[in-house]
């Protein structure tokens, strides 16, 4: 029961981070699937990086190193 109380205590802090993480993840996926040009790598590489490193790291790496400026 102690773990549940701790979770309820941290939920207001964790919920915005989870929402931001999933929003960034889906935004990166949509961008990867709808664009053809990338600065480095190809579509498959960036899909793998984004999915495997689903936490903030994968999508951020894509937007820094993979997204082609248009």
Contiguous runs where pLDDT drops below 50 for at least 5 residues: none
The gyration radius over C-alpha positions equals: 16 Å
**Element-level helix/strand string:** HHH
Give me the count of strands.
0
Number of folding domains? 1
The percent range for strand residues is under 5%
Q: Number of helical segments?
A: 3
Shape: elongated
From the structure provided, what is the oligomeric state, counting identical versus distinct chains? single chain
Largest sheet: none
Class computed from helices, strands and strand pairing = mainly alpha
Distance between the termini: 52 Å
Percentage of residues assigned to helices: over 70%
State mean pLDDT (0 to 100 scale): 84
Descriptors for this entry?
70 residues, mainly alpha
What does this structure look like?
There is one protein chain. The protein has one domain (about 15-65). It has helices spanning about 1-35, 45-50, 55-65. The chain is mainly α and about 70 residues long. Helix content is about 75%, strand content about 0%. The chain starts with a helix and ends with a helix.
Summarize the structure.
The chain contains 3 helices and no strands. With 70 residues, it is mainly alpha-helical.
Secondary-structure topology with pairs:
Elements: H1 2-34, H2 43-52, H3 57-66
Helix pairs in contact: 1-2, 1-3, 2-3
């Amino acid at each position: 029961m102690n773990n549940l109380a701790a979770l309820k205590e941290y939920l207001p802090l964790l919920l915005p981070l989870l929402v931001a993480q999933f929003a960034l993840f889906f935004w990166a996926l949509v961008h990867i699937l709808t664009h053809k040009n990338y600065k480095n790598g190809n579509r498959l590489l960036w899909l793998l990086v984004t999915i495997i490193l689903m936490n903030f790291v994968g999508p951020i790496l894509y937007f820094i190193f993979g997204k082609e400026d248009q």
